[in-house]
């Protein structure tokens, strides 16, 4: 299972994030997307970061699937017109000072 963070961006001043956005995204998932869970993290003034948990064997497939899922929401006939998909990638621990967490210490 992979956790992928995908940005949904919108710079409108009066940004309105649907309260049921996680449910809405889950409803847009296809069975072969293998979406397990969706969480929403608002980013005031920018949009949201969507956390998508997917069952897949490859990270690249997970990132592409999460981007496609969010793309369905911002499509011209989707529920979030005027929004766009930003980055879609697995969060890394290195920026948080945890890069050596799983490495054994040097002698």
Write up what this structure looks like.
With 107 residues, this protein is α+β, with helices and mostly antiparallel strands. It has a single domain, classed as Alpha-Beta Plaits, CATH 3.30.70. It contains two helices and four strands; from the N terminus they run E-H-E-E-H-E. Strands 2-3-1-4 form a four-stranded antiparallel beta sheet, with helices on one face. The termini are far apart.
Put the structure in a nutshell:
This protein is α+β, with helices and mostly antiparallel strands and 107 residues long. The protein has helices at 21-28, 59-74, and strands at residues 2-9, 35-43, 47-54, 84-89.
Number of H/I helices? 2
- Global morphology: globular
How are the strands of the biggest sheet laid out side by side? 2-3-1-4
Bin the strand percentage. 25-35%
How many structurally independent domains? 1
């Amino acid at each position: 299972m992979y956790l992928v963070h995908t940005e949904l961006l919108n710079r409108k001043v009066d940004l309105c994030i649907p309260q049921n956005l996680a449910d809405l995204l889950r409803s847009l998932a296809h069975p072969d997307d293998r979406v397990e869970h969706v969480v929403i993290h608002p980013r005031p003034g920018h949009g949201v970061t969507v956390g998508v948990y997917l069952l897949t064997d490859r990270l690249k497939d997970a990132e592409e699937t999460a981007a496609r899922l969010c793309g369905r929401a911002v499509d011209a006939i989707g529920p979030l017109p005027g929004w766009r998909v930003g980055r879609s990638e697995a969060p890394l621990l290195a920026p948080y000072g945890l890069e050596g967490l799983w490495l054994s210490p040097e002698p």
